[in-house]
Design a protein that fits this description.
Blueprint: E1 2-8, H1 11-22, H2 33-45, E2 56-65, H3 66-72, E3 78-82, H4 85-88, H5 103-106, H6 116-134, H7 139-142, E4 151-159, H8 160-170, H9 177-189
Antiparallel strand pairs: 1-2, 2-4, 3-4
């Protein structure tokens, strides 16, 4: 998977929002150390977490499975614009047939789990989908054959408060392996000066099994 940060709110926007309450704008250092400390103190230590909602991040996420997409949709305080299967399934029509011997070629379309029987069945499902499309079935009907492993991509916009919750839940060892990888990739894509707000949310990395 690939995670790219396309846009983020400058820290000073959040610190200015906090300073609105006390009209203490004269104490701002334009997103510097004083403002960083204020955001952490008010948003995290004093638990006025609504102030963190003024910080917004916009990511482009590629190469995740539709199974992960379902998990991502459970985080409701975020906006998702997802690659449309209705308009993009034509990408499969010109492919040669798929079999287990074509795993490398199938990886263009599928997220592999490294569990042989699961990946074999995913490739079979991909071939079934290709056949349906070649038969001329419309995309909006053919997509009912999509395997959960089918890759998608999306634009994802989320505020810092919700992102703390996402990273805390999804970097945990109990989370789906693929979404753990996503949580860490999202954290790594954040601007360096913003990461301090999420360090305590990030769980220790554990080796995982697919």
């Amino acid at each position: 998977m690939t995670v790219t940060l396309h846009h983020h709110t400058p820290l000073v926007v959040c610190s200015d929002a906090i300073r609105t309450c006390w009209q203490s704008f004269d104490k701002s250092d334009n997103g510097g150390e004083k403002d960083r400390e204020l955001i952490d103190r008010v948003g995290n230590k004093f638990k006025h977490a609504s102030t963190l909602e003024h910080l917004v991040y916009n990511f482009y996420i590629e190469g995740i499975s539709r199974a992960l997409l379902q998990e991502l949709a459970r985080h409701r305080m975020a906006s998702l614009s997802v690659k449309s299967t209705r308009y993009t399934l034509k990408e499969l029509k010109d492919e040669e047939p798929f079999s287990i011997d074509h795993k490398e070629r199938a990886e263009k379309y599928l997220v592999m789990t490294d569990v042989p029987i699961v990946d074999e069945m995913s490739i079979r499902a991909l071939e079934n989908l290709r056949i349906v499309l070649v038969e001329g079935i419309s995309n909006d009907r053919a997509k009912y054959c999509l395997p959960e492993s089918y890759k998608t991509e999306l634009t994802w916009t989320i505020n810092a408060r919700s992102l703390q919750n996402f990273i805390a839940l999804r970097s945990d060892k109990a989370a789906l392996w693929e979404i753990r990888d996503l949580a860490r990739a999202v954290y790594s894509a954040l601007p360096q000066e913003h990461r301090y707000l999420f360090e305590n949310s990030l769980k220790e990395e554990h080796s995982h099994e697919h």
